[in-house]
Design a protein that fits this description.
The chain is an alpha+beta fold and 435 residues long. It contains twelve helices and 24 strands. Helix content is 32%, strand content 22%.
Amino acid sequence: MDKENNEMIEGYKETEIGIPPEDWEVVKLEDVAHVKAGGPAPQGDHFFGGKNPFIRVQHIDEVMNKVSGWNLITDEAVNRYNLQLFPKGTIIFPKSCASIRLEKRAMLPFDAYIVSHLCAVLPAVQKVHNIFLFHTLRFVRFAESKSDGYPTLSLGEIKDRLIPLPPLPEQRKIAYVLSTIQKAIELQEKIIVALKELKKSLMRHLFTYGPVPVDQIDLIPLKETEIGMVPEHWKVTKLGEVAKTASGGTPSRKHPEYFGGKILWVKSGELNDNSISCTEETLTDTGLSNSNAKVFPEGTLLIAMYGATVGKVGILKCKAATNQAVCGVFPHRGIISKFLFYTIIYRRSELLSKRYGGAQPNISQTVIRAFNIYIPPLIEQHQIACILTTIDNKINTEEKRKSTLQSLFQTMLHLLMTGKVRVRDLEVKEDALRR
């Protein structure tokens, strides 16, 4: 409806789910698909290790909207629990417990059994295009009407859910457009995974042989050290021997005037092996002077000592203060912060092995200063940091492209599913529509 003159837009109609095109139907999900529940999860180790895939809620990747894992169960489990086999292409999503709020969706990549917490939707292909319906269910939000606590979706309310239904030829074209974007996202994800694997391989090479070509590693004499094999001319020493450390502080939350100023203030949760140029919170000059927080210079290496991100690192791209859960590292002359940044990432598991404490173990400045690190000549530190920075920049570029594609998908999903953008006249080869 045109909000300015309160008149219906030509070619569209008002319905219970909005204002779709006039030639679209609005139907219940059960009118175009069979809706069923999965079965109970087998109990007992002897039911596992077979050849039958069994998919649980946690096996659905909520970011990529696909099945990313499964258990294998025995024929005995299938018979004992009277499980139903669902065919490849069945649409699945959670129907109970807090996971329905994640609005996960997936299509079975092969015939499989599913857990009772999942709903199975089997399209009636003579009425609805399978992939169109999958994307429709990505557009439909089932959890919006659910209160807090332990939400559930009954099969009845799933079946009664109203959905838009364009003519079948237009369904196929909508599916084609959205699937094309989705495939681009998946390709982008593969590129990112490959780059991250390349980075791991590069780090193993660089921190074992130094910045030399692979065909020259036989020319590099190595020595055994307490942290493994390294080039003979490298030194191994404690971090505290080549750098000073300091931590920050938190002003009293009882004084709102201590917060919201111009001083950036980094908390441990903001460290994720990243460069830091902005922060969630800021301090005033008064807040800084009334706490143990202190301003660290641009280029400071930061290490998270407490919390969920313990062991994660960051590099300041501008001056900033930190809280007490963040350790600032200030290398002596001849030591490059960015080289130490990558050294900590590469050897993080060893650093985390030094954690102490109860339910959520921490590290301390004492642990950090006592941590053994490599010290190559300055020029090699520069080369290693430059190589790894280059690949990090490439990873960041590809991740931004993926994010852009994901935003495009969400925009097109809304526009296509509401009929604000029509693709009925889009020219697509018939074989492409059948894929």
